[in-house]
């Protein structure tokens, strides 16, 4: 009590406590109240103590996996599978909340498959999680359908060298993963797009490039020392990006 005023009551005067959930699961809370002087008759029937116990269920807040903000960004004519942290643990229902006089720009089925059409705009979806212990959670998320403005290429893994100095070129003999990200005119990253990625490199004797495990990834292997230029483009939206890829020796013996 009164912790907001930095007042700490003594144990005998502190008859209320706060309970904080630290992790999901079940637990119990037991409270025992004892009299200081049994002869004073403070409790009925001369009882020496009162006992009560409750069960507490701590559960996760409903969230969509892979979505850092409360908005899903999709390109036109694309698909997105809505996955939550309660999939498999609760009963989930989905629906579009747009008014009857407004044509929704997305559809969602009973399995959480979200699809956009050729129309751009903003819609809202509602996700309800019915928990087995009798609690319902509701999550309302905006879905924006917008045109793709540009693409960007990122690289993995991160290189760690002595003294944290940056490398000036790719190490010879390494295998890398390139990820292609799509952005709207505000710079926000798309969660779903209908793009078909094409790529080309001007020196295939220096680098080998191939498709990755997903539609927006490439696998790159450095073969020889030299400078190559990688082009990645999407015909559907008429966008492209060019990346210079120099290759050099990263490890060399120390001569004495």
Automatic annotation (TrEMBL):
TM annotation in the entry: none
GO cellular component: nuclear pore
Pfam families registered for this protein in UniProt: Ig_NUP210_13th, Ig_NUP210_14th, Ig_NUP210_15th
InterPro entries: Ig_NUP210_13th, NUP210-like, NUP210_Ig15
Residue ranges occupied by any NUP210 Ig-like domain in the UniProt entry: 2-58, 145-247
PANTHER family: NUCLEAR PORE MEMBRANE GLYCOPROTEIN 210, NUCLEAR PORE MEMBRANE GLYCOPROTEIN GP210-RELATED
Protein name per the record: Cadherin domain-containing protein
